Amino acid sequence: MQPSCFIYSSHNCCDYIHRQWIVERALQSADNKTILYLPFSEGGNGGHFGSPQQFGWGKFEWYLGQFQNWGLHSYPFFWEDSMNEHQAHELLNLVANSEVVILGGGNSSTGLSRYKVVGEHFFGDRDLFRKILQDRAQRGKLTVGFSAGADQLGSVLTSQIFSNLNDPEGFGLAHNIMSTLHHESSRNEELWVGAQKFPHLMLFGLPNDSGLGVSQGVLPSGNIWQVIDFVTDKSWDLPADEFHIKTRHGQGIEHVYSDGRHWSFQGGEKMARVMAPDSSWQDAYIFLPDGTCYSYWTQEHAPYGDAGQVFAQF
C-alpha cells in the first residue's frame, strides 16, 4: 500500500525526500514517468523569466532535470489571469493523468483560490479540482504538497488557527490533518491552540526537512481509515544551510494534544488512525520501527502488530 498523498516541508531539494518519495514514485511507472509542478500559490502572473512562479519552479527544475536520462519527464503549468477554456482543459487533463503532481509553495490562500476558480469559472464546479485529486488517489497516483501545497492538501488551512478566512477548506487528501510548515519547537503553542480549536483534526509541525505520507480509505463499517508514515530527512549536507534544516539537529515532527501533552515523531514511525465519517470521534495507534505499538490517547503499550489489526476492530 503506497501513500496517495505526501505533504512536506524542506529548505531545498533534500535527496531522500525528493528522490525516494517523489522521483522514484514517477519512475516506477512503466509508461507514465511524469511529474507536473503547479506554482499557482506563488504571486504574480505567468511563467516569464524572473516571475515568482518561474522562481518557484526553478527550485525544483534543477533537481528533477537530473533524472531525464532515466525517462523522467517533469514540467510546470503556470497560472495566467488570461487562462482560456482550452488551457483549463489542458491543465485538468495534466492533473488527472500525470503520475505525480506537486502543489508548490507560496501563499496558501492565493493558490487555493486559483485552483478552485478554474473549476468554477470554466466548468461551473468550484469543487472540481478537489474531485480530480481524490480520483487520482483512488487510481494510485501520488499528489505531493510542498509548503503551501502541504497546507492545501489538508482539511483546513493552518492560518485558520488564528484567523477567520473566507474559504479555509483544503482538498482533504490528508483527511482531518493540519500541518504547520518550516516548523520549530518554539511554535509548539500554535499546535496546542489549533488542537483545542479543531479537536477532530490532528496537527503536525513539519520542520525542514520532514514530511507525512498519507494513505486513506473507507472501511466496510463506513469508518475512515488512515495510515500516516512519518518521514525525516538528514541528507542535505551543505554547511551553509545547516541552521535551516532542523531535522539535522534532531528535531522530529512535532505534535501537541489538546490537553498539552506532546509527542515528537521520528522517521520510520507510523500512525494507524480511524475516524467517524462525521468526524465525531477518532482513535489512533502509533507504531515504532521495531513494531512496538502505543495507544495514541493513553501513550501506553497496545496489543496490535500492524495497522490491519487495528482496522479490523472498527
Task: Offer a quick outline of the entry.
With 314 residues, this protein is of the alpha/beta class.
How would you describe this protein?
- The protein has 314 residues and is an alpha/beta fold.
- It has eight helices and 14 strands.
- It has a ten-stranded mixed beta sheet with strand order 3-2-4-5-1-8-9-12-13-14. It has a two-stranded parallel ribbon with strand order 6-7.
- Helix 3 runs parallel beside helix 5.
- The chain is globular.
- The two termini are 19 Å apart.
- The relative contact order is 0.14.
- The mean pLDDT is 95.
From the N-terminal CA to the C-terminal CA, the straight-line distance is 19 Å
Strand order of the largest sheet: 3-2-4-5-1-8-9-12-13-14
Task: Sketch the topology as an H/E string, one letter per element.
Answer: EHEHEHEHHEHEHEEEEEEEEH
| Percent in helix | 25-40%
Secondary structure tally, helices: 8
Unreliable segments of 5+ consecutive residues? none
**Average pLDDT level:** 95
In quaternary terms, these chains amount to single chain
Cα radius of gyration in angstroms: 19 Å
Q: How many strands, what sense, and barrel or not for the largest sheet?
A: 10 strands, mixed
Number of strands: 14
Structural class: alpha/beta
C-alpha geometry: globular
Q: How big a fraction of the residues is strand? A: 15-25%
